[in-house]
Amino acid sequence: MFLIVGQGNPGLQYARTKHNVGFMVLDRLAPPASYRLKGNALVAELAVGEEKGWLVKPTTFYNATGEAVAPIARFYKIPPGRILVIHDELDLPPGRLRFKAGGGNAGNYGLESIHKHLGTSAFHRLRVGIGKPPTPEEGAGWVLSGFRPELAPVMEKVLEAAAQLARDWVSEPPEKLQQKYNGLNFAPDTPRAQ
């Protein structure tokens, strides 16, 4: 069994914001109507081959993701190594993905919350590039705004690739996923396109 967690904020006003790319990926794995409330999250079942697991969209806000994830992981007895967290990443431009098994939280409060509530950082992460704001002071507004319309084709491709990585993650080793996905670039001609 496994958990695939999308980070994001609940509510329609946040649905298309950069901070909600985790939810956007999950919506490519199961239709939004298939999610049901369980504790502090919307969950949907996902079967990949012979394995069954859960897609998790926390109904807590982004920075409190762990409050939703840890109880579900404990309930289903899912170890940290079978948890994949999909989140936005300022340090990657739009059109890029980065998969990593374990590691630090790099200032991501949602990851810190999961680490705190699970008691470990040994879960897996899939970072989806959103690019940096023009200035550090604009960070909060940046993650809570949408992508420019001209980036729609780029984001469509990267979100589809992220959904495929999530499916592959269920049965493939981390090293193979890194080789297959970490070098992808769906926006090669727009190095600073956000």
TrEMBL record:
Q: Which UniProt keywords apply?
A: Cytoplasm, Hydrolase, RNA-binding, tRNA-binding
State whether keyword Magnesium applies: no
Main localisation: cytoplasm
List the catalytic residues. 19
- Provide the GO MF annotations for this entry: peptidyl-tRNA hydrolase activity; tRNA binding
- EC number assigned by the record: 3.1.1.29
Please cite one Gene Ontology biological process associated with this protein: rescue of stalled ribosome
Q: Where is this site: Discriminates between blocked and unblocked aminoacyl-tRNA?
A: 9
Coiled coil start-end: none
UniProt enzyme class: hydrolase
The record's comment on protein family reads: Belongs to the PTH family.
What this protein is called in its record is Peptidyl-tRNA hydrolase
Q: Which organism is it from?
A: Calidithermus terrae
Q: Recall the taxonomic lineage recorded for the source organism.
A: Bacteria, Thermotogati, Deinococcota, Deinococci, Thermales
State the encoding gene. Answer: pth
